Amino acid sequence: MPTLMDVWDSTRMRLLIELDRASSLSAAAAAIGISQPSASEHLRLLNSAAGEPVAERSGRSLVLTPAGQILARCASQALASLAAGESTLAARAGLRSGVLYVGASSVPGTYILPAVVASFIARCPDVAVRVSVGSTEAVMEWLNKGRITLAIICSESKLPGLRSESIGADEIVGICSPGAVDISSDGCVSIDQLKSRTLLVQEHGSSTRAQALRLHTADPGWGAVWEMGSIDAIKRVARQSTGIGFVSIYAITDERRRGELVDFTVSGVDWGQRDVRAVTLRNVVQPPADRYFQALLTEAIAKGSGT
């Protein structure tokens, strides 16, 4: 007599599952693409292997017996595990070839991505990596034009047709040279202390620039506005006691550790929620390499990469 292990295959598993749904042998057979006589033979083999009927007549319907219901439940779990295995293998295959096209705005592109890219390359050496770093505005343009498939930015995009997901928190802080302003014990500076100071801002298209300029516009007491070509330029000028800049907390890790810059918040100023976000096109399936890179990036931010 055959055992269930002898006759247990995906066709018979699917037949039991469909029979439980339809209570009709012809409907179950049609659902899995076999003839009714073939389905009857499959049931006969299952009955023999189980040692008891797995289905029985109930009026005009064919329904599963308690034994059949047990087997259908096991079949459903087995097929789900097989499907998960297929998905995993497909993702693994996707990580053995192809190209990762990722774009990032200045903060994540300069201070977070490098270590994560290195980790990704070490784990997926057969995937080519293409990284583009620019302003938030430029990165979103690259995404919409198909130059990249994954965008990492520090602001919420309002453009239609995009999927945006927070992968970690960010914070805008003021920076200056030590002793340039009087910072309270809780890390705050009053807006009055910033009057007549030179405001150092990033290039056009930067989300941080936009927020810093709103602060400048709200208080006419500021001095000049200097437009810097990069975050590093802002930090360099701030170290010389020439001005005040506003940057991501990720951007000043090294300078703060070396005592070259101090950071502060401005009393009464709410910058609003700011996250590091992964943005993709809504109607495009995310490639396995993109998904894996995003997972590595999320993990790195959670562990405090850059801060």
UniProtKB/TrEMBL annotation:
Signal peptide: none annotated. InterPro entries: LysR_HTH_N, LysR_subst-bd, WH-like_DNA-bd_sf, WH_DNA-bd_sf. Residues 8-65 form the HTH lysR-type domain. SUPFAM superfamilies: Periplasmic binding protein-like II (SSF53850), Winged helix' DNA-binding domain (SSF46785). It comes from Mycolicibacterium obuense. This is HTH lysR-type domain-containing protein. It comes from the Bacteria. One of its GO terms (molecular function) is DNA-binding transcription factor activity. Belongs to the LysR transcriptional regulatory family. Keywords: DNA-binding, Transcription, Transcription regulation.
